[in-house]
């Protein structure tokens, strides 16, 4: 039980803990290299993974509560080394309720060659509404990763950014939506990569991308985002 008097905080810790199993289930992480966080609604706080703990050993009570400057508020373990980047996103994008970071292999391969993933299939039009952009190269240790995420995604439809020669950060209105974006980013990164082995890949017409994005976000997106988290996973 949390010692902080915040209704729903224990449930949020359990949700963020369970979402880490999705990173494994969808093949987005090796060892302990990915993390999920969630904003604590109504508070200047977030829940995030502890650093270096195996996904099998994660439990809700091991989850960290940090403030939006990345300082530890509750928890006995050290927060994820990516906490500063997550905190920067929450400070600068008030609409964001969840952040995910992975080094998922296909998407990270695109980041390694600093190429945006072209919006070449309808699934990308639906979820991303554009190419998946490349963000700047930045080293861990200060706000530069967070600044790169925010400067790339602010005003962009895509909830995913390929941080150059590093990996993927995704955002969402809640943690589950950010995990979904991370799963979809890897899926389309793989598909468009495979397509390029077969021949040239053409971006969809912008008018078609606009139609796909509008329909998906207004018909499917809001319904999906309003569903409560299910511990067994993301719906099909
Ligand atoms: Zn990383």
Automatic annotation (TrEMBL):
Record's keyword terms, sorted: Metal-binding, Zinc
E.C. no: 5.1.3.4
UniProt enzyme class: isomerase
Stored Gene3D superfamilies: Class II aldolase/adducin N-terminal domain
Reactions accelerated catalytically: L-ribulose 5-phosphate = D-xylulose 5-phosphate
Class II aldolase/adducin N-terminal domain ranges (all copies): 14-193
A Pfam family: Aldolase_II
SMART domains in the record: Aldolase_II
InterPro entries, per the entry: Aldolase_class_II_sugar_metab, Aldolase_II/adducin_N, Aldolase_II/adducin_N_sf
Cofactor(s) essential for the protein: Zn(2+)
Family: Belongs to the aldolase class II family. AraD/FucA subfamily.
NCBIfam families named among the record's database cross-references: PRK06557.1 (NF005123)
The protein's name: L-ribulose-5-phosphate 4-epimerase
């Amino acid at each position: 039980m949390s010692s902080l008097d915040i209704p729903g905080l224990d449930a949020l810790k359990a949700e963020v803990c369970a979402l880490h199993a999705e990173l494994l289930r969808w093949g987005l992480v090796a060892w302990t290299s990915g993390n999920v966080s969630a904003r604590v609604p109504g508070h200047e706080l977030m829940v995030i993974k502890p650093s270096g703990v195996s996904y099998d050993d994660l439990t809700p009570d091991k989850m960290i509560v940090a403030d939006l400057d990345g300082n530890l508020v509750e928890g006995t373990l050290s927060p994820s080394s990516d906490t500063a980047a997550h905190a920067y996103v929450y400070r600068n994008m008030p609409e964001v309720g969840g952040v995910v970071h992975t080094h998922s292999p296909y998407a990270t391969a695109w980041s390694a060659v600093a190429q945006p993933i072209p919006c070449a299939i309808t699934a990308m039009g639906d979820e991303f509404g554009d190419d998946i952009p490349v963000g700047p190269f930045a080293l861990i240790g200060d706000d530069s990763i967070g600044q790169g995420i925010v400067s790339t995604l602010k005003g962009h439809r895509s909830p995913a950014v390929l941080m150059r020669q590093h990996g993927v950060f995704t955002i969402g209105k809640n943690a589950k939506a950010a995990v979904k974006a991370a799963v979809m980013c890897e899926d389309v990164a793989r598909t468009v990569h495979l397509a390029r082995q077969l021949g040239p890949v053409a971006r969809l017409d912008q008018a078609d991308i606009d139609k796909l994005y509008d329909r998906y976000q207004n018909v499917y997106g809001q319904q999906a985002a309003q569903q409560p988290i299910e511990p067994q996973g993301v719906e099909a």
